[in-house]
Structures
1.
Amino acid sequence: MTSLTARGAATRDRIVAAAADLMYVRGVHATTLDDVRAATGTSKSQLYRHFPDKDALVHAVIAVRGEQVLARESERLEHLSSFGGLLRWRAALVQGSARQNGAYGCALGSMASELADTDEHARVSLAGLFRAWEELLAAGFRRMQDQGELRPEADPGRLAVGLMAALQGGYLLASTAHDVRPMEIALDLALDHVRSCLTVPG
């Protein structure tokens, strides 16, 4: 990457951005390198100069998507310290999914469902990104404990994993139904459990 010219770096970024969009809507396996070339107006030689094969491009897409998702979630969760903050986080996620009628799911989750059993590099990368996302939630739960809102015996890590599982399952059901309602239900049930762990449930 350090040897790329500014023009070369811009071309690479354009290829990755287009591939990310195509893979999100069509799926990883259904997106071909020819699709990416057509979307970016690049030649075969340009594409292969940056990415020798599709796997290399997919791994670059995972890195970029992961950076985007974690930046978004960091902004939403880095100051989380109350149940009200969790409700606002839930509302933002549902609103984002509702803009596309629940279609396509989570940018990371959709890739994980396609790649986890066939691409070990991708699986490990995605697992690390999910752990980082879960840690943002767990840190918020720890802040809630520090402020006395969450019971001391509650396990922030377990709550974070449970909430992430509800979120990803909700994304999947919303994607197949093209309806955001299953995602709302999954998140609300998970948050009901968190509510039961508050020092003053209600």
2.
Amino acid sequence: MGSLTQDSQLLHTLSNGLAELYLPDGGDFPRRVIRLVSSLVPADSCSYNHLVGPVAAAWQIEPADSLDFPDAQQLFQEHLHEHPLLRHVEATGDLAARRISDSASDRQFRALGLYREFYRPAQVDHQLVVSVPAPGGGMISVALNRSGRDFSDRQRDMVDLLRPHLTQAAAIASLLSQSLPDTPQGPDGRPLLTARQTRILQLVARSEERRV
């Protein structure tokens, strides 16, 4: 009975979170993603990273003070190429949700400069990451971090269910951030469509382009 109740609560959380993820007025996109993923799987911190090759073009983490040590961002950039999950993606192209422990033993992970210089000061011993292609190039990686017990298979599978939604929502967020195309005008010079109608047509046209 307890398991059924827990599953029901998770489905409710997932449903509400996905609705918010697609809302253009729900706040900035990275924060919406972090809020959704964190609501599904307990973690000490969660980060949203836009990676272009072995470089983090942008990142955001909650809580914001999770990386409260000197030169955190610089150290992450310097050692990112060592990341076992990034190496897995580069070798296989597989963006499915994975834990660091799926690709490296605890001993191998702790031997990396990435761990010694960045993750140990950040008190991160376990990580679960899900990635999707980023609109315009690179990839978006969402990472859940823990200092205690590793993530379970069930939690990994739960996060992996988000991949198609993250892909679609990222494409929509990217499109909504662009300037609106010119709206057709009538003989009197007044727009034939509202800004909202123009945006909807733009989204429909982009969806049709992807199908072709």
3.
Amino acid sequence: MPYSRGSSTNIIVGAAALFVADTTLTPSTLETFSTEVSFRETLTNDAAYTNVGYTMNGLELQFQPDFGEVQVDQILDVARLYKQGMQVNLATAFAEATLENLLVALAYSDSKLTGNKNASTGQTLNLSAGDIGDVPVERGIVAVGPGSGDPLTFEDKERIYAAYRALSIENVTVSAKRDEPSMFEVSFRLLPEDTSGSYGKIIDRTYGQS
């Protein structure tokens, strides 16, 4: 095979559409792909998922392994590293400052949000310190963005990021400023799913083949 510098079609540029599930996900509960349409359309038409709308600064997955060290007398550096922990985080910013998005960012249950913002009584998000035994709400997250491959062909490429158990753990700021938009920066801690021990999966797929 002749030498090649690389393939520019494998460079991925562009943001992803972010969907939040009502509950946690498992490998078997993730929606079935349609051969004809983007997975964005599939999730949009599923009442179990909510599109958070506009985001800022894209989506970032961070993998943080934790390694232990074995030191011996005969060398000044460590003789061996072993993996003793793992942490995975997903970070983004919700540019649409709705109470529904704030509820997700605060890891509140749906019962904290009441009313209708289009009614005279309005919509209310109850900010509660919680009670003994309260636990933050885990939700599934699915993001659909551009994939790798030649975008000029008849086939459409996309990359899907699925997180089975996501929990918001960082500080969330709600602001109203003259020179900045209101948005919610949120960092989700991903937890492994019970049966498979998997955090989720990343899928490259092609749809709409002619």
